[in-house]
User: Fold this.
Amino acid sequence: MAKAAKTSFRCVECGWTTLKWVGRCGECQAWGTVEEAGAPAPSAVAPAPVTARARPITEISVESAEAVPTGVDELDRVLGGGAVPGGVVLLAGEPGVGKSTLLLEVAAMRAANAPVLYITGEESAGQVRLRAERLGALSERLYLAAETSVATLAAHVDAVAPKLLIVDSVQTMVSPETGGVPGGVTQIRQVTGALIQVAKERGIATVLVGHVTKDGSIAGPRLLEHLVDVVLHFEGERHSQLRLLRAVKNRYGPTDEIGVFELTDKGIEGLPDPSGLFLTERSDPVPGTCVTVALEGRRPLITEVQALVAPTPLPAPRRATSGLDTSRVNMILAVLEKRTGMKLANMDVYASTVGGVKLGEPAVDLALAMAAGSSSNDVALPQGFVAVGEVGLAGDVRAVQGVRRRVAEAQRLGFTDAVVPKNFGDPIPGIRTHEVEELVDALTWVGKSRRRKKGRPEPEARPRTEPQEQERLTLAEDAPF
Assistant:
């Protein structure tokens, strides 16, 4: 006797299925979205007519898949040369970071050579026109439409036949044949699939704007990032003019490139050489500052790390950071106190970067440690000096990725001395490299260089003491400058 088909329940938002009804979806955690779906229909795939016969890969033409420059150099750098016909790019970023402004300028640049269709679902056509006038992004070949239906969008594509399609944003688009609320998981999945089909069939380079959640990840199902060809993140502090464009996924180019932009009154401008934004212009060195070279993708950026160490009357000292990883800063402070004898347990420590840049790589550890030591002892580091290296828990200075590229960038900008880890290799002309193995060695070298600059004589040789006493004197007198 055949068994009766079991009834299943499915979430209308994310598609999660279960054998029993529940009030809350186990996948997207939405309430009241689980409905009865019935028994699954048996699946049998019947052969269908072939639309295009299979050919040897050597006969496939690559001309149709070559990247076309967008006109914005920093965006082309991240994309790997430009937008690929038929490729779908997902651009995500926090509200107000400048996604729509950047894409409007890209649309105006591309419209100089080919028609561009800009679909807005969050603003009216008049609002976008006002922004285009302010940015100087008006063009006869730039077509604008305010739509939220993906079926109507396909009709606009047939009428305009654009070479570039911009949809702002994918969360506002709705597929009439699919249930669910606009912006829901089911709608986003269906709309994205339809837009990808339109782009692939017609060979249109497509850019989709995506919203992000509170933690900075792309809103919607994870499947959205797997469907598209390129995933870009547009980052930047709300109170800073600096904007960074990163490629998280790129089927047509590298994922270790970044684009640097500056938000101005006239729009967003690319910065081919942004190193000067992350340095403080001053004539004399100030205690508590140290310059390092961060590696953002393939691009080295000269940045300045600042630290302020001050006594506190509170029983629990403050540890405040801006642009740096808080746990990493606490670890460096603990290494300074344990390995160099520096007293920081009863001190407030404030650490930050200049220009609003975020530094999360271990290569800035040495610069942070030297800035904290400089502020604690009120001794300024020499001018024209950079520090690159990772600091371990044992107080050792470890090698980092691309250290020669970092030092070469510092030499190009006029820096004369660099403290680097051991085994640096051949010296780079124009800059003196000082290899250190321990954090104490780096602090001792800086202290001696400051004494020589001030004309102080080197300390006289001390009488022979026990090894432990000799080590204690060295840490107390030489290491903290």
